[in-house]
Please model this.
Amino acid sequence: MVSARAEFADRGYDAATLRGIARRAEVDPALLHHYFNGKAGLFAEVVAIPLDTSAIVKSINDGPTAELGQRVVRTFLSVWESPDGRDRFVALIRSALSNEQAAAALREFLTRELLTKVAARSGVADAELRASLAASHLVGLAIVRYVVMIEPLVHASVDELISLVGPTLQNYLVP
Model:
């Protein structure tokens, strides 16, 4: 899995090959076909998001409404800052740009599993729109910080990003 995750993160879904992944893992490519039924099955396993979204939503929603945006940013960055999370999500983001399966996985995770449930807390009619705006901001942040790696965003502290991005997400999620 580590080799596949690294290959998808480095090359994206379309450019990654089973042979390249097998070479990295030092295994026979036939094993990947056998156990994962091809590249699509392996990719689905690699980008499966092993997070307890109910616990994440609960931790985001627990606390003052006035700090909701900050908690969303803190939670998002804590996942990205973990080595396993970063590799998994870089692979997902890179692949989502060229592959509908990856785009759907990212879209479902951010909007349906997390942000719509958080935005619904405010009771507004346009919670899904607000959640998608928050998702666009977070995905943009992730692309620039972890994929394209533009300075000084790459080396900005998590606390600095929370203080700068939190108010914008607050505005999206809580009118």
The mean pLDDT is 86. Residues 49-173 form a domain with the Tetracycline Repressor; domain 2 fold (CATH 1.10.357.10). The chain has two domains: 2-46, 49-173. DSSP finds ten helices and no strands in the chain.
